[in-house]
């Protein structure tokens, strides 16, 4: 997948189609622009990008096309027939919720984060347009009721909205990006988590977008284009850059890292040395084989996963498609005797995997659902239902 860090300049390439030759962090950008219709999700919420992969092509080459800019499989690699996995609802029964694809009022929605074990914060959009959010709702999955918490009003000229709504310290926060003449401006918005009016926290020039979290009664964000991590009190005031984070992106707060999206002699790395902005601790990345794609703890290459220091290696039951959410969850493409056979949600920390129930079409294509690395919720549609997985609740 091609890195869409220059998303705005090209009609904000947030389309969720995933091309085999594309490069890293596709999901980071995909979420903000087009795909979250079926996204899974968090961070906050989750969100799934839709990929179409040709099973016949995979069978002909003997391997999956490399996703997310992953280096191509070594020529000696042979197709591996993956074992059948139990359904996702059998693996994590308390975390999986299957509901109708629309709210009781008929609105389509994207889950954002769980407010409690049976109530999920969901986002609706005017005309189902990805960049026209109009409301945040508390959706009680047990009772089947949805109550509006926040009426969202995006400013004129909005061209991108946040991939996720984030939560912390009793507040919700999200961002929008708008055009104002030749300028592009990010606005950060907040509202009470219990409901109430939205309030603009800060505005600043930014060509592409940001990653955003709430921690310690502060909004903390990093810029997509130039990097750099900033913080600001939720009560307002002035924003300040965090020392030691020049050129960094948020990885998993308080961890940040320089973002390395470019290919260099067939090298693809999303994040470099991780830096803890609170303690100053650093985590180096492996240097021997620079084809690895590293998140905070795990580095991935094809079916292989291991810690940044090279320990705790494991072989995954399928090809990785993204940097892990919550530093542990991935979706994987699986191979069968006739090519691509399905997708599973995989937990790196335990080695457990659950089948998503997605199968190739008669034409041999397979729709891919992907967990964004910032997500606490994963969701997708299957057999006319929406499946919502509360990743943060899985022990």
Number of domains: 1
Major β-sheet profile: 5 strands, antiparallel
Contiguous runs where pLDDT drops below 50 for at least 5 residues: 1-77
CATH architecture heading? 7 Propeller
The secondary structure category is mainly beta
So what's the overall shape?
globular
CATH class: Mainly Beta
Distance between the termini: 31 Å
Number of helical segments? 3
Number of strands: 31
The CATH topology: Methylamine Dehydrogenase, Chain H
Strand content: 35-45%
How would the blueprint of this fold be written?
Layout lengths: L25 H8 L10 E2 L5 E4 H7 L26 H4 L4 E4 L10 E7 L2 E7 L7 E8 L4 E7 L6 E4 L4 E3 L2 E10 L2 E10 L6 E7 L4 E6 L2 E6 L5 E5 L6 E2 L6 E5 L2 E4 L15 E3 L5 E2 L9 E2 L3 E4 L2 E4 L6 E2 L3 E2 L8 E8 L2 E9 L5 E3 L9 E4 L8 E6 L2 E6 L5
Antiparallel strand pairs: 2-29, 3-31, 4-5, 5-6, 6-7, 8-10, 9-10, 10-11, 11-12, 13-14, 14-15, 15-16, 17-18, 18-19, 19-20, 21-22, 22-23, 23-24, 25-26, 26-27, 27-28, 30-31
Short characterization:
It contains 3 helices and 31 strands. The protein is mainly beta and 395 residues long.
């Amino acid at each position: 997948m091609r890195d869409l860090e220059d998303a705005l300049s090209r009609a904000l390439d947030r389309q969720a189609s995933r091309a085999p030759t594309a490069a890293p962090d596709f999901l980071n950008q995909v979420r903000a622009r087009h795909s979250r219709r079926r996204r899974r999700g968090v961070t906050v919420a989750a969100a799934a990008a839709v990929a179409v992969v040709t099973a016949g092509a995979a069978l002909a080459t003997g391997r999956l096309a490399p996703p997310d800019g992953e280096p191509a499989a070594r020529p000696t690699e042979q197709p591996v027939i993956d074992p059948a996995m139990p359904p996702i609802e059998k693996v994590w029964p308390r975390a999986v919720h299957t509901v109708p694809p629309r709210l009781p009022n008929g609105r389509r929605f994207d889950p954002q984060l769980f407010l409690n074990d049976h109530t999920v914060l969901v986002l609706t959009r005017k005309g189902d347009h990805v960049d026209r959010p109009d409301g945040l709702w508390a959706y009680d999955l047990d009772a089947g009721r949805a109550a509006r918490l926040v009426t969202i009003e995006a400013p004129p000229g909005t061209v991108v909205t946040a991939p996720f709504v984030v939560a912390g310290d009793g507040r919700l926060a999200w961002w929008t990006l708008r055009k104002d003449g030749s300028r592009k401006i990010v606005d950060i918005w907040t509202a009470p988590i219990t409901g109430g009016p939205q309030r603009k926290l800060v505005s600043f020039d930014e060509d592409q977008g940001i990653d955003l979290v709430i921690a310690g009664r502060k909004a903390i964000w990093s810029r997509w284009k130039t990097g750099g991590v900033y913080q600001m009190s939720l009560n307002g005031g002035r924003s300040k850059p965090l020392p030691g984070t020049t050129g960094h992106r948020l990885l998993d707060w308080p961890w940040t890292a320089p973002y390395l999206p470019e290919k260099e002699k067939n090298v693809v790395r999303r994040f470099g040395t991780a830096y803890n902005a609170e303690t100053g601790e650093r985590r180096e990345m492996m240097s021997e084989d620079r084809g690895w794609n590293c998140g905070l703890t795990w580095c991935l290459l094809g079916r292989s996963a291991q810690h940044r220091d090279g320990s705790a290696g494991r072989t995954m039951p399928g090809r990785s498609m993204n940097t892990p959410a919550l530093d542990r969850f991935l979706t994987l493409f699986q191979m069968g005797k006739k090519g691509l056979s399905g997708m599973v949600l995989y937990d790196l920390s335990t080695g457990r995997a659950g089948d998503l129930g997605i199968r190739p079409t008669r034409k041999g294509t397979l729709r891919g659902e992907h967990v964004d690395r910032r997500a606490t919720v994963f969701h997708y549609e299957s057999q006319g239902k929406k499946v919502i997985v509360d990743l943060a609740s899985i022990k």
